[in-house]
Amino acid sequence: MKTRITELLGIEYPIFQGGMAWIAESTLASAVSNAGGLGIIAGGSAPIDYLRDQIRKTKEMTDKPFGVNIMLMSPNAEELAKLVIEEKVPVVTTGAGNPGKYMEAWKAAGIKVIPVVPSVALAKRMERAGADAVVAEGTESGGHIGQNTTMCLVPQVVDALEIPVIAAGGIADGRGVAASFMLGAEGVQVGTRFLASEECQIHENYKNAVIAAKDTDNAITGFYSGSPCRCIKSKYTKKLQEMEKNAAPPEDFEALTVGSLRKAVVDGNTDEGSMLCGLIAGMVNEVKPAAVIIKEMMEQAEKLLGK
Ligand code: TUI
């Protein structure tokens, strides 16, 4: 399936693997790139030496294009912005902010820049700043989210921009890919489906929680603080929501949330960890190799779209 995205990046299939903080590392990213999609290493707030190592490992494991996601609110963003140039990373995606100030240096280095945006206004701003494409991320996504849904956001962003649009949020099979294309997207970004891939390095307990999750086992925390974050419903999210309702003091939030991603991803602590996950988890019921996930998704989409 050729689109402006496959042409722009030199990839076989227009499928990005989401740059999930604490989760998306070299094993997963290289598996997705080797399967013809775009694997993405998450910068998150990881130390720069770790990220350099992850980029180099990915280069050893694949000769295909891959990307790095830079979370712009992170304290490491400035350093990582330089590292991707030094390491000649082919694609950068950004989240949680405006990458405008890095754009000139990245473009001069030949990096393709694809910001993730939750609104039409931000999408337009990114196009003006020189982005090569944007990921329009609906509120169905896991992690930090905007308010608009994939179904409503994607066609509005497509209408507002000249550059290609990649749809994200709630896409986990070929029907989601086909629907995204009908909305005018030229690619999709998939996160939650890859949580249940063989190559994803999250703790088994977290993976099992994704597989066990039903359509309603999802919670948004931080709704009232203006920083909504979507996770699997758990003791942790119930506690956090209770504290929000009772306007608990900031130090109580700090105590509960500090290290919560690590607790979920590394320790497999499903009671105290924050299991970031999209709303489509109810449809994700089996662990499969990343290459199989991509192949099945594309075959189903091509059939539905009648090639
Ligand atoms: O970035 C995300 N999702 C994320 S980042 C993340 S890391 C983390 N999460 C929980 C605890 C600790 C660390 C988890 N999930 N999605 C992309 C996204 N970007 N969503 C919203 C935005 C966004 C917001 C504002 C993009 C641009 C923007 O611009 C504001 C401005 O300054 O113009």
Summarize the structure in words.
With 307 residues, the chain is α/β, with parallel strands linked by helices. The chain folds into two domains: 4-199 and 289-306, Aldolase class I (TIM Barrel, Alpha-Beta Barrel), CATH 3.20.20.70; 204-280, no CATH class. The strands form two sheets. An eight-stranded parallel sheet has the order 1-9-8-6-5-4-3-2. It has a three-stranded antiparallel sheet with strand order 7-11-10, covered by helices on one side. Helix 2 runs parallel beside helix 3 (48-61) and helix 8 packs across helix 14 (290-305). The model has no long low-confidence stretch (mean pLDDT 96). The protein contains 14 helices and eleven strands. It has helices spanning 4-9, 26-34, 48-61, 77-86, 100-108, 120-128, 150-160, 174-182, 192-195, 204-212, 235-245, 250-257, 260-265, 290-305, and strands at 15-17, 39-42, 66-71, 91-95, 112-117, 134-137, 143-144, 165-168, 187-190, 218-221, 229-232. Bound molecules: ligand TUI. Residues 21, 44, 71, 95-98, 116-118, 122, 137, 143-144, 146, 229, 261, 276 line the site of ligand TUI.
Descriptive labels:
307 residues, alpha/beta, TIM Barrel, 8-stranded parallel beta sheet, 14 helices, binds ligand TUI
Can you summarize this structure?
The chain is 43% helix and 15% strand. With 307 residues, it is α/β, with parallel strands linked by helices.
End-to-end CA span: 8 Å
Quote the beta fraction: 5-15%
The CATH class name of the largest domain reads: Alpha Beta
Largest sheet: 8 strands, parallel
Shape annotation: globular
Count of β-strands = 11
The CATH homologous superfamily of the largest domain is named: Aldolase class I
**Helix-strand string:** HEHEHEHEHEHEEHEHEHHEEHHHH
Could you say what the CATH topology of the largest domain is called? TIM Barrel
- Could you say what the CATH architecture of the largest domain is? Alpha-Beta Barrel
Figure out the total of helices: 14
As a whole number of angstroms, the C-alpha radius of gyration is 18 Å
Q: How many individual domains?
A: 2
**Which sequence of strands runs across the widest sheet?**
1-9-8-6-5-4-3-2
Which small-molecule species are bound to the chains here?
A: ligand TUI
The secondary structure category is: alpha/beta
Summarize the amount of helix as a percent range: 40-55%
Runs in which pLDDT lies below 50 for 5 or more consecutive residues are: none
Overall mean pLDDT = 96
